[in-house]
Amino acid sequence: MELRQLEYFVAVVEERSFTRAAERERVAQPAVSAQIRRLERQVGQALLVRSNRDVRLTQAGEAMLPHALAALAAVRQARRAVDDVAGLIRGAVAIGTVTLHPVDVAGLMADFHADHPAVEITLGTDNSDVLLDKLADGRLDLAIVSIGVDGQPPELDVHIVTDEAIDAAVALDHPLARRKTLTLDELVGHRLISLPVGTGLRTRLDTACAAARITPQVAFEATSPLELAEFGAHGLGVAILPESMARNNPRLHALRLVPALRGRLVWAWRRDMTSPAARLLRDRIRHPPRHAS
User: Domains in the chain, please, with CATH?
Assistant: First the structure.
């Protein structure tokens, strides 16, 4: 009797399907079926009743199930005990980020993997609204997102990456290039260049305009602030950009918005985080090792 056979048996029972069990165990369905048949031959009894609709336990299967569960639990406890002695952490951590940020995520992942090679890390990108939803329902453990200065969701903790003003920016030959400031009322009289709905920067703009009961005229959208800057530099309209990008581009003239808009780029995670691996990565983000850049 092999551990793999017990794992497949429990998966089929819990999923009530050979197909779903195979997906859960990340193997082909015939492999699950073959191992279950081997297990049944070894115990000398049919353990499962197969039908077109679902899978049910036989009487022998019902007798087998608690012992299979106990055996798997004992193996997990044994692994944890050995890991504790070795200082090894296992598990998986799912990270999400917005498309543009100043964090060296690759370096962070490489350093973490060097210290915890048994932890599997996955990385994906999306806009802030989607990333926050994925944090909320547990699909992500940590994410780099854009939020308002007072827009932190109550169920999340954050570590601030950047906190800066949001500016308007125009080409050097634009009529507004002689101005230093621009009110929201004046802003909406121009064609705007902005990130799409769902991004943090766009949410800051739309929220401020809604509060002022005005509607922005977004003529061009792009998924990256770098593209917004390019559109602005080519005279296609007024680009809405983080201050650092608006004021450090020699092809753009930056204007301070009135009232001022601010946004934060943060690492975010659920306060009730339970994964030991994710907690270790969170702690590394909060308190980077001295050798880290």
Answer: 1-73 (1.10.10.10), 88-292 (3.40.190.290)
